[in-house]
Write a structure and sequence with these properties.
Elements (H helix, E strand, L loop, with lengths): L2 H11 L2 H35 L1 H17 L6 H14 L3 H29 L5 H4 L5 H24 L1 H8 L3 H24 L4 H27 L11 H36 L4 H22 L2 H10 L3 H28 L1 H9 L8 H26 L4 H25 L1 H49 L1
Helix pairs in contact: 2-3, 2-9, 2-12, 3-7, 3-11, 4-5, 4-8, 4-11, 4-13, 5-7, 5-11, 7-10, 8-9, 8-10, 9-10, 11-17, 11-18, 12-14, 12-16, 13-14, 13-16, 14-16, 16-18, 17-18
Length: 465
């Protein structure tokens, strides 16, 4: 038997879920490899062409944009779970109603935020806020911030492309779109650098391709489903209320995630100056490369957990959690520790030694922070997949408040390193109580419910007889 035929037989023998997850993982690895390559070329181009202050401001603006994404109150994530359940049970009409309601809600959110941005930005003094010293950057700052945030607002409804693909177990489609968007973003940055354009053009060149990729992906899926009609976007109050109940917990957890990614750069920029963001951002981007590997095999598990819960396959959920923890340790945390040993030298080769590089202490603090985050993700994806976010959300709020308070207190005496120390200390309640303990609680409860269901099912025939 040839090797190709052997592989085909193995693939045919896999369950539908395993095939779906496998295809998702394979395309995710490819898309993230493309993303890594694009980042490797994009960042040096931007740093060299813009300078440290303008690049630091760009990263700060990006962080502010990410902070805006909490405004959907978790509706996108909640809709993903509900859509996955509807598709798994064959409820096409229900799925169509869910999608239409969420689309209407996100369009409204995007319009409201765009109006707020257009009114608020002209009234702010960004030179004083971000301690800008370069006259050219001072002039560009208001326009750059306005354009970037408006593009983020446009991304609200287009982000449904990802949620719909995941809920249909078609995450591979989103991965392909993401890869193409990354290539387009690199091309946009290259053109801006080649023609010596300013910060505004860099932002447009970097953000527009991703938005276009999502727009095309969303259009393709709507055509496949026969939903490509404007009248589909309708405001169903009952559906909105149902999704708000679930989405509120997703939204609050999302706020924590956004703040942990964006708030550190904002604190550093406002307290130490925009140029001080660059070393922190470079080090975090280095560790983000390892997060790409973990996300490749964790993201497919979210909709898979939702489907497994709907079908009562709790044994599969427990086994998959154990495997994801092992894979995280072996494929992300261990290689990341090795990479941290050479991070400063690699960053110097990447962006040039003329650029301000992170200290060794900052590198190892960020390694510890990211290792904690990788470990937490395994439990977090399970809890999100089975919609068990209520208690988890309370702990996330506690941790977020603690982190924000500690950051503002110790950033000035300890600098960038103090920001990371604050994140590590403040994260512990969420990690231990909000993820590990809540996952154990859910699995114990699910095992008890499953045993009860089996006993009832076995007793029905004898009762009938």
């Amino acid at each position: 038997m040839s090797l190709l035929e052997s592989i085909r037989q193995r693939v045919r023998g896999l369950s539908g879920r395993r095939k779906t997850v496998g295809l998702f993982v394979a395309t995710s690895l490819c898309a993230r490899t493309v993303g890594i390559c694009c980042q490797m070329f994009q960042i040096p181009l931007a740093v060299k062409a813009l300078g440290q202050e303008a690049f630091g401001l760009w990263m700060t603006i990006t962080g502010i944009g990410y902070m805006l994404t909490f405004a959907d109150i978790g509706m996108g994530q909640g809709a993903q779970n509900k859509l996955a359940e509807a598709f798994a049970s064959g409820g096409t009409n229900r799925a169509r109603e869910l999608f239409g309601s969420v689309a209407a809600f996100l369009v409204l959110v995007g319009l409201i935020l765009a109006t707020v941005v257009a009114c608020l930005v002209p009234a702010l003094n960004f030179t004083a806020l971000f301690h800008l010293t370069n006259p050219a950057v001072q002039i560009e700052a208001p326009w750059a911030i306005t354009v970037s945030l408006l593009l983020f607002c446009l991304g609200f409804p287009l982000g449904l492309a990802q949620r719909l693909a995941y809920s249909r177990q078609r995450g591979w489609m989103h991965n392909i779109a993401q890869g193409l968007g990354g290539i387009g973003s690199l091309s946009g940055v290259f053109l801006a650098a080649h023609f010596h354009k300013g910060l505004v053009e860099f932002i447009v060149g970097a953000q527009i391709p991703g938005l276009l990729a999502n727009a095309v992906l969303l259009s393709i899926q709507l055509i496949q489903l026969g939903w490509f009609k404007l009248r589909l976007i309708r405001w169903h109050w009952e559906t909105i209320r149902e999704l708000l109940g679930l989405g509120a917990y997703f939204g609050l957890a999302q706020v924590q995630n956004i703040l942990l990614n964006a708030f550190p750069q904002l604190i550093i920029s406002t307290c130490l100056g925009a140029a001080a963001v660059t070393p922190y951002n470079l080090a975090q981007r280095f560790f983000n490369l390892f997060a790409i590997v973990q996300n490749a095999f964790l993201l497919p598990l979210w909709p898979a957990y939702t489907e497994a819960k709907a079908r009562g396959e709790f044994g599969w959920i427990r086994r998959t959690l154990t495997r994801s923890l092992r894979a995280t340790g072996f494929f992300t945390i261990l290689p990341m520790a090795f990479g941290a040993l050479f991070a400063k030298k690699l960053l110097g080769l990447w962006v040039g030694r003329h650029t301000a590089l992170p200290s060794e202490s900052l590198i190892w603090l960020l390694f510890s922070w990211n290792a904690l985050g990788f470990f937490t993700q395994c439990f977090g994806y399970l809890l999100m997949g089975v919609s068990e976010m209520k208690r988890n959300t309370y702990y996330s709020l506690l941790s977020t408040g603690l982190i924000a308070g500690l950051m503002t207190i110790i950033v000035r005496p300890l600098g960038r390193e103090g920001v990371v120390i604050a994140m590590i200390i403040g994260y512990m309640p969420f990690l231990i109580l909000g993820n590990v303990a809540e996952t154990i609680r859910y699995l114990r409860r699910a095992r008890g419910e499953n045993k009860t269901s089996v006993v009832l099912t076995e007793s029905i025939p004898s009762a009938v007889e």
